[in-house]
Amino acid sequence: MFILFFLVWVIFNGQLTAEIAAFGVVIAGVMYLFLCKFLNYSPKYDLFFLKKSPLLIQYMVTLILEIIKANLTVFRLIYTAEYELEPAIVNFQTDLRSTFARVLLANSITLTPGTITVSLRENRYTVHCLDKELAEGLDSSVFVTLLKKIEKD
């Protein structure tokens, strides 16, 4: 996170001089200490994200591909005259352990067109789907599979 703060400082300044770098190190350090002290942030989070970065990048790529596929599906559902939409509310549970993974799954479902996570309580999700076709396989989706890989120690 310190490096991210420093990079943002340099990007906002538009150039890199010794003076800007020195101020950037100080400001990034103060921001990092603030995170650790007041927002319960820990260097363990940095190590976790560094260790899991290949899987997190794979997850982001998968999310983008699923968003594109869902866009095409929703487009087909809306513009096909002979098909009548059947909205559905689906409840399902996952065995994801961490709050991070559960919230990431809920946000991924919401970002995917045609579905919105209405509620998340512990491991229980309530999802509204534009059509019952979009509700199929939510509990065993590619997102859940990747998040289980990310959760493994």
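The above is record 1. Record 2 follows with the same two-line structure.
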Amino acid sequence: MRKLALALVGPAVVAVGFATPAGLAEEKVGPGSPATSRELLDCTGAPDRTCNETGGGVVPDSGTVAVYGCSPLEYGGCGESVYEICVGDETELTVEMTYDHVTGVNDLDLFLLDGCDEERCLDHSTMISGFERVIATVPAGNYFAVVDGWTPVGSDGRCDGSGHTILVLCDTACSTVAVDPESWGEIKARYRE
């Protein structure tokens, strides 16, 4: 629960925020803007995706992210589907998402993040056609594609349960070479040098 204390300072009223319980971030309030809460993105159990791979999912009925660092839209009413992407070398990373868009029922958006944090947004796509695409030139590493549903305030639209397909396009996937357990001592010795 958010708390707000009001203090009189001369003729003006000043709002003072109190600490919130773990898992909730402080309230963001700007001149003329609605208050929104920033909660951390949950990447636990995110399915892995690699270069030139397609997979699907369903947006859950509840989520934790209200706003993303690269979009002015608010996403408080729907859940997020998170996918972890590993690229093995610098590459142009393209993520495409398709879904069956039904006007007034669902509107899914796509975000590409360079970490498990909604503020670390590299690119986003917020079309309403059933197709979203994000593109970024990235170094080797792990990235997160997030599908989130947007429902306009006051609408009867819903986004939970909306199925979607993710396609990841890039040149160099992360290496998945199996390591012989008997060679662990040699590998550890190399890292100690």
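The two ends are 51 Å apart (CA to CA).
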